[in-house]
């Protein structure tokens, strides 16, 4: 995920449809600073939010110290043709 950049496409394939999302923004945030309501709160349009671990590993926390958050908006919906 760290290699994504604004404008890149993320394709989510389902049984009947494929959803194409376009990366709009990315941020790296300290684990203790994440506001879950802000990250996953209501949006007026469909959005995909991806979160993964980043930064240095903290023995005290038992995980990495940061989270990389990718925000992508729905840009296209296609019917799947098999």
Helical segment count? 1
Pattern of helices and strands? EEHEE
**Coarse morphology:** elongated
The tally of beta strands, per DSSP, is 4
Question: What's the average pLDDT?
Answer: 91
Describe the structure.
It comes from Planococcus lenghuensis. Keywords: Hydrolase. This is Sortase. InterPro entries: Sortase, Sortase_dom-sf, Sortase_F. Pfam families: Sortase. The protein has 82 residues and is mainly β. The chain has one domain. It is built from 1 helix and 4 strands, in the order ββαββ. It has a 4-stranded antiparallel β-sheet, with no helix packed on it. It is elongated and about 50 Å long.
Q: Could you give a quick summary of the protein structure above?
A:
GO terms for molecular function: hydrolase activity. The protein has one helix at 36-40, and strands at residues 9-13, 17-30, 47-58, 63-79.
């Amino acid at each position: 995920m760290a290699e994504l950049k604004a404008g890149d496409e993320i394709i989510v394939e389902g049984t009947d449809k494929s959803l194409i999302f376009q990366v709009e923004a990315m941020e790296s945030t300290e684990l203790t600073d994440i506001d879950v309501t802000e990250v996953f709160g209501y949006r007026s349009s469909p959005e995909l939010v991806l979160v993964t671990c980043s930064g240095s590993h903290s023995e005290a926390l038992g995980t990495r110290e940061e989270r990389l958050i990718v925000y992508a908006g729905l840009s296209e919906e296609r019917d799947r043709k098999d």
